[in-house]
Amino acid sequence: MNMNSMINMIIRMITRKAINKGINMAASRGKPRDEMTKEERQQTRRAKQTAQKARKSARLARRLGKF
Predict the structure, then answer these.
(1) Phi, psi of 36 (to 5 degrees)
(2) Fewer C-beta within 10 Å: the chain N or C terminus?
């Protein structure tokens, strides 16, 4: 593996983690779990599940788009 592909791989990993953290932060509206009410925790959980489904469907669409 050459150095350029190694750097690209590391940058993609860091970017993916940052995007996922941002999505989770937006889902919880920046509040820590301790400060949330029960309803807010449920809403956060649903938002995270929806984001996960969106990521899966985007992956599926990319796979199907290749054909």
Answers:
(1) -90, 150
(2) C
Identify the residue with better confidence: 14 or 44: 14
- Contact assessment for residue 21 and residue 51, using Cβ atoms and an 8 Å cutoff: no
Long-range CB contacts for residues 3-12, cutoff 8 Å, separation at least 24: none
Among the listed residues 55, 62, 28, the one whose alpha carbon sits nearest the alpha carbon of residue 43: 28
Helices (H), 29-37: none
* Cα–Cα dist 16/3, whole Å: 20
Per residue in 19-52, pLDDT tens? Answer: 878 877 777 676 777 777 888 888 888 888 888 8
